[in-house]
Amino acid sequence: MDSIDPFTAQLPQPTAARPLLGLTVLVIEDSRYACDAMRLLCLRSGARIRRADCLRSARRHLQVYRPSIVVIDLGLPDGNGTDLIAELAASQPRVQALLAMSGDTFLEGEAMAAGADGFLAKPLVSIADFQEKILSLLPEERHPQGPRILDNAVVIPDRIALQDDMAHIAEVLEDPPDDHALDYAAQFLTGVARLAEDKPLEDAAHALAAKRALGEAAASETAILAGLIQHRLSDKVAI
Fold first, then answer.
1. Per mean pLDDT, which range of 18-27, 79-88, 229-238 is the poorest?
2. What is the mean pLDDT of residues 88-112?
3. Which DSSP state fits 154?
C-alpha cells in the first residue's frame, strides 16, 4: 500500500512559534492529569489533540481517524501499550511519529523493540523538550522554516484533573483488589504522583510495587496508599 499521505500538502505549515501546527496528536493515556499536561503541550505547540484512555478506545478511534502522531502510555488498564505500538509500527500508511511514554525509563528498550520511533519519559512538562522530541522524528518538510526560539516554559496541568485521577484509583482499590488491580494502582499512582510532585504518594506507590514484585502480601502498603488517596480527595482547599 502507498505510504504517502495525499492530504499532507493541505496541512497548515508550521511556524517558529507553533512548530507542530497542522498536526494531530492522539494521546493514549489513562491519567486525566497527565493527559492535561499533554493537552497544554500540544496547545502551546500548535497541534490538535485527541485522547483515548485505554487500548480498546484507541483502536476504535483509529478505525475512524488518522492522527499524525501517536503517543502511547505503556501502562494501560486493559493491557500493555507495546501491543498497540507493534500494530501501528506494521500498519500502512504509517503515522509520522509513534512514541511510547512511561515513568519507568527501563521500559524504553521494550518500546523501541516493538517499533516505537521514540520514548517520552514522565513527567513531561517542558514545552521545549516536547517540541524537540517530536520534531526530531518528523520529515524536514514538517519543520518550521528559519530559526526557532526554544520555549523554556513548563506546563501546569489542571488540579481538578488530579482529583479525577484520585477518584478513579480510589474506585480501583475500593473492593478487595486483585493482583492486577494492585499492580495497576501502583504503576498509575507512581506516574501521577511524580507529575504532581507528591513525594509521600510516590513513595507509597513504590512500596506497594516493591511488595508486589517480591510476591509478598501487601495489605499494609495497600491500606496506607488508600488512606493517602482519601486524604487527597478530602482536601479541596488547594483546588
1. 229-238
2. 95
3. B
Convert the pLDDT of each residue in 156-201 to its tens digit. Answer: 999 999 999 999 999 999 988 999 999 999 999 999 999 999 999 9
Which has the closest alpha carbon to 180: 212, 225, 206, 153? Answer: 212
CA 112/CA 73 separation, integer angstroms: 13
Give the whole-angstrom CA distance, residue 42 versus residue 44.
5
Q: Which domains does the chain have, with CATH numbers?
A: 8-142 (3.40.50.2300), 159-234 (no CATH)
User: Are the C-beta atoms of residues 105 and 121 closer than 8 Å to each other?
Assistant: yes
Report the candidate in 144, 100, 148 with the shortest Cα–Cα distance to residue 124: 100
Cβ neighbours of 172 (radius 10 Å)? 18
Averaged pLDDT of the chain: 91
What are the E-state strand segments in the chain?
24-28, 48-52, 69-73, 75-76, 79-80, 97-102, 118-121
